Amino acid sequence: MAQFSSKPAYTLFDIVKYFLKLGTWGFGGPVALVGYMHRDLVEHKSWLTEEEYKEGLALAQLAPGPLAAQLCIYIGFVHYGLLGATLAGIAFILPSFIMVVLLGMAYRLFGGLAWMQAVFYGVGAAVIGIIGMSAYKLTVKSISKFEFSAVKAKWLLWLFYIVGVAVTVITQKEEILLFLACGIGYMLVKAPPQWIKKPAALPAVVFIGAGFWKYDGKTLQQMGLFFLKAGAFVFGSGLAIVPFLHSGVVKQFGWLNERQFVDAVAVAMITPGPVVITTGFIGYLVAGFPGACIAALATFLPCYLFTVALAPSFKKIAKNTSIKAFVEGITAVVIGALVGSVIIIGLRSITDIPTAIIAAASVFVLINVKKIQEPYIIGMAAIIGLLIKTL
Q1: Quick check: is 351 in a domain?
Q2: What is the distance between the alpha carbons of residues 257 and 86, in angstroms, rounded to a whole number?
Q3: How many CB atoms lie within 10 A of CB 377?
Q4: Which of 91, 133, 184, 371 could tie 19 with a disulfide, CB 3.0–4.6 Å?
Q5: Phi, psi at residue 211, to the nearest 5°?
Q6: pTM of the model
Q7: What is the spatial distance between Cα 21 and Cα 211, in angstroms, rounded to a whole number?
Q8: Angle at 327 between CA 22 and CA 244, to 5 degrees
Q9: Buried b vs exposed e over 87-111: b needs ≥16 C-beta within 10 Å?
């Protein structure tokens, strides 16, 4: 069992209440949420040491699943074990889950009305710009800057990245085997494990109108398996899950069309908490409230299991260079797939000059106006969409 500092300065109720508040008011995506946790829990409250926080962040980056949710679960585990991890995770995810279910009900009720279509006309274009900008930031942060020396030093990761872009654009789906191959390939080149060097054994009316309880049993089973894979094979930022979801939800199963999928991503942008909660909205549109529960639970279950399983012995795992190399290889190709997905969705969502301008303006604002967060951009895009469609 990992040795954490004894006698915590907070109760289990305190940490659960904190994550309930963060899940309700924490806008800005995974990077911002991770920053809030450090500011509040390490700097202001001194509930965690710097070392405990850094170990949690490292585990969140190494394991698959949404970054902020993993760190939250780890922090809950530090002093209160499995119960703390479970309650902290539920408290963090629950507020945004409730919000996306309510938004899903509204979308099912009013999605056919002209004003709702006008709102998402502008919002969908803004989302393309936001995802595109996020893909650029992830590329620079996880692979290297766009400088000759940096690209030369990380040439193999850039190769995986380009392959990820090309395969996603050409096939219009994600290949999990490609992800695993890139991860294993980079591990073998950069840090082959010891067992390879020395062979050894391998280790109501409104509810009815909103489709609240409308579902199909077979669809729920398919959704459970699909979102379980999504949670288990996607590393890093919450937006990294977008291409995986797009390939399955739109292409493979046809649960949503392109317009609905972009709207689902937009809903995740305007709600607090983890971006991955978009799976709850998608699940609601496909199979009502049971679908929302199955999709959200299946998506977050892998990261919960990985975190609580690895947390006790993470000090040893964190030093394993082979595991780090494996994650670097997968991350490179996943981010490439995200870029490919942005290209695919963008070609279908940017349908005219106004949507192109909104998408470009969103990128411009994100680059030049640091204090404006995504929810504000989404709100402005919604107003612009209404004005364009009604005037």
Answers
A1: yes
A2: 34
A3: 25
A4: 91
A5: 65, 35
A6: 0.70
A7: 29
A8: 70
A9: bbbbbbbbbbbbbbbebbbebbeee
